[in-house]
Amino acid sequence: MPVSENGTAQEVAAARVLVGSASDFREGDRKLVQVAGRTVGVFRVEGRFYAYENTCLHQGGPVCEGRYFPKMTAVVTGDGRVLGEKYDESEPHLVCPWHGWEFDLRTGEFCGDRSKKLRSYTVETEGDEVYVA
Ligand code: FES
User: Fold this and answer.
1) Which of 7, 55, 121, 124 is within CB 3.0–4.6 Å of 11 for a Cys-Cys bond?
2) Where does the Rieske domain start and stop, copy by copy (predicted)?
3) CA-CA distance, 62 to 126, in Å (whole number)?
4) Is 63 in the pocket of ligand 1 (CB under 6 A)?
5) 96 touches ligand 1 (CB under 6 Å)
């Protein structure tokens, strides 16, 4: 078990929460876990894990319980006419279920102001087990 410079092995173990096994965590899955009294959403997107506190920056809604899908972009002609919209698969967005604020799922950034971010957590894998630290 790794021990940081700031704590004993027990303290480090207490700071990590088992989310589940990676093999049971399919692409697109999410799980909510309790970490030090806070609810944290853990997502598997494009083979990577992301974890954020389940508290929206707007009014504290359960952001990690919202839907996520690719960013929606407008299709605009050279002369400024909008032809429609399409998904941009390069940027998954998490949408808060209360009022629709959108966050970049890979960074936690609020899409309306990239200087604001959801509180993120480190996700560690050890063998087939996934932990939030
Ligand atoms: S609380 Fe999340 S959008 Fe309002």
Assistant:
1) 7
2) 17-132
3) 28
4) yes
5) yes
Round to whole Å and give the CA distance between 44 and 25: 7
Query: What integer pLDDT is reported at residue 24 of this predicted model?
Result: 85
Mean of per-residue pLDDT scores for the chain: 89
99 C-beta closer than 6 A to ligand 1 = yes
Q: Which of 104, 119, 105, 107 is nearest to 57 (CA)?
A: 119
Ligand 1: atom nearest CA of 66 is 2
**Residue 59 CB less than 6 A away from ligand 1:** yes
- pLDDT of residue 3 exceeding 90, the answer is no
Task: Report pLDDT digits (tens) over 17-46.
Answer: 999 999 888 988 999 999 999 999 999 998
What are the residue boundaries of the structural domains of the chain, listed by start? 9-132
Which atom of ligand 1 lies at the shortest distance from residue 99's CA?
Answer: 3
Please tell me the CATH superfamily of domain 9-132, with its number.
Answer: Rieske [2Fe-2S] iron-sulphur domain (2.102.10.10)
Closest listed residue to residue 59, CA positions, set 131, 1, 110, 123 = 110
Ligand 1 lined by 98 (C-beta under 6 Å): yes
